[in-house]
Write a structure and sequence with these properties.
Strand order of the largest sheet: 1-9-10-11-12-22-18-17-14
Number of domains: 1
Low-confidence stretches: none
Strand content: 35-45%
CATH architecture: Distorted Sandwich
Mean pLDDT: 95
Structural class: mainly beta
Number of strands: 22
Number of helices: 3
Distance between the termini: 36 Å
Helix content: under 10%
Length: 357
């Protein structure tokens, strides 16, 4: 199949939804929210992902087989904002790239850095076929440059496959400067909190520890502090989402030395009581760290069962001290890929047979 590429322009996004592309396997719709944010829906026979092509190529929502994958949140629509905290209702954002995580008082960066809501310079669609079959891809380009400072190009991608509830999220970062740049990146996927759900890591053996520091936005209660002390001794107590009252304030765990299968992939799941599952796989040789974030209260519900990253999300100075901030030489690139999404009960059974868990 011949690859077809369509360059996008802001003028294509009117107030109402309109079809930009329609094939036997896919459909693409474009519109502008009342807030002014431009959106693009990539659809296949099983569902859709809604991306914001000019705002960090954030993925605002994802729905497959009638199941909403996105965290419960306070936003009825995406908001134009220079930082992610002003529109924190999305399914996924690209966290980083020069700085990442929750800033400590001595840090000077916004929550999760400059990339989540970056004003993209270009966006495009691609439809084609590869070894894995027919695909529909959204791509984008963002050039960051500061006089006497850093200069890089970020190229995020979102790829939907025919007939699949899984999709691929990519990020390529190229250092355009003559000197090395610091690099901190996290694929921040904010999955829905599923009561009674169980988080599973089929490739057992990762080291897990509960976050001991308390960020400024967290207000501990005595009950929460006691629960945290128990989790510190046995992090597996968090695996089942059966204690929502204890998941406020947020619970954060860090994974180290995550094992991979023979193909180099790590696998994480959030199994639903009825049989389906949310699923993520990634390569630990691309992402040296992973985080788990769980929160449940009257306003938000999220079970981010795995957030692959190059560092932990405790802010620049803390990660620099730990030695977790990567260096990317001038002219060099770093590439990151994640496959994530929804598995039907039958697909989950097949994966269980394949992985043994």
């Amino acid at each position: 199949m011949k690859t077809f590429t369509l360059a996008l322009s802001p003028e294509q996004f009117s107030g109402a939804e309109k079809t930009l592309l329609h094939s036997a396997d896919f459909r693409v719709l474009a519109w502008t929210y009342p807030s002014g944010v431009k959106a693009l829906a990539l659809e296949n026979a099983r569902g859709r992902v809604v991306a914001l092509p000019y705002q960090g190529q954030m993925i605002w929502s994802a729905t497959f087989d009638g199941c909403d994958l996105t965290m419960r949140n306070m936003f009825s629509q995406p908001r134009p904002s220079p930082t992610v905290i002003g529109t924190y209702g999305c399914f996924m954002f690209h966290a980083g790239l020069l700085r990442n995580g929750c800033p400590a008082p001595a840090d000077d960066h916004p929550l999760h850095g400059e990339m989540p809501c970056a004003p993209m310079d270009a966006a495009w669609l691609e439809i084609g076929e590869d070894a894995a079959g027919a695909y529909l891809r959204l791509g984008g380009g963002y050039e960051y440059v500061q006089g006497f400072g850093d200069h890089y190009r970020a190229t995020p991608t979102l790829t939907l496959r025919a007939g699949s509830g899984l999709f691929e999220i990519g990020m390529a970062v190229t250092n355009l400067a003559g000197k090395a740049m610091e690099l901190m990146y996290m694929a921040h996927m904010n999955y829905a909190y599923i009561p009674g759900g169980r988080m599973v890591e089929p490739m057992a053996g990762a080291r897990v520890r509960v976050r001991s520091s308390v960020p400024a936005h967290v207000r501990p209660t005595p009950e929460w502090s006691a629960y945290m002390a128990q989790l510190s001794l046995d992090p597996s107590r968090l695996n089942t989402l059966d204690s929502p009252a204890l998941h406020d304030p947020e619970i954060v765990c860090f994974f180290e030395a995550v094992p991979a299968d023979a193909a180099g992939n790590a696998h994480f799941l959030l199994d639903h009581p009825a049989g389906p599952a949310f699923y993520t796989r990634y390569r630990p040789d691309q992402f040296s760290h992973a985080t788990r974030w769980v929160l449940h209260n009257a306003d938000q519900g999220v079970a981010a069962f795995v957030l692959p990253a190059t560092c932990e999300p405790e802010g620049y100075l803390a990660e620099k001290t730990k030695g977790h901030v990567r260096s990317l030489a001038g002219g060099k690139s770093a590439v990151f890929n994640v496959t994530t999404g929804y598995l039907s009960a039958e697909e989950r059974r097949r994966l269980r047979d394949e992985l043994g868990a």
